[in-house]
Amino acid sequence: RAVRPEEIVKLKKQISTEWATAGPENGLGADTAGQIEVVFNELLEQHAAPERCFSAFILFKAQNESLFTDDIQRLIWKTAHEIASAFQNKNKSELGMLYDLGDLLKF
Fold first, then answer.
1. Contact (Cβ atoms closer than 8 angstroms) between residue 63 and residue 55
2. Cα Rg of the chain (Å, integer)
3. Could you tell me which of 55, 67, 58, 56 has the C-alpha nearest to residue 27?
4. Sequential pLDDT tens for the chain (107 residues)
5. Cα–Cα dist 26/58, whole Å
6. Which of 89, 76, 72 has its CA nearest to residue 7?
7. CA 93 to CA 53: how far, in whole Å?
8. Are 44 and 4 in contact (CB under 8 A)?
9. What is the pTM of this model?
10. How far apart, in whole angstroms, are the C-alpha atoms of residue 74 and residue 102?
């Protein structure tokens, strides 16, 4: 499905308020927020399938476990919920992906 404008607004808000300071505090690069936005925009332009993106995330996490501190995992979880809740309620597909994300992050 297409990414709704409301979801993009929520992500950009999370990036500017939460992720802008999360990187340096958690051993990530100083421009973590900027990197997230660049990658998101590229995937948006490519009309990347959510399932493909999630599979790539699983692989990235497995190869970079040290980046996924408890704080970062909580922030990923919070960001995912904010985006999914941006447009009315979470749909069945979003609920499934949130469940899978929670399982991956061990929530």
1. no
2. 13
3. 67
4. 678 889 999 999 999 999 988 866 677 777 888 899 999 999 999 999 988 999 999 999 999 999 899 999 999 999 998 888 887 666 778 888 899 999 999 87
5. 20
6. 89
7. 14
8. no
9. 0.86
10. 10
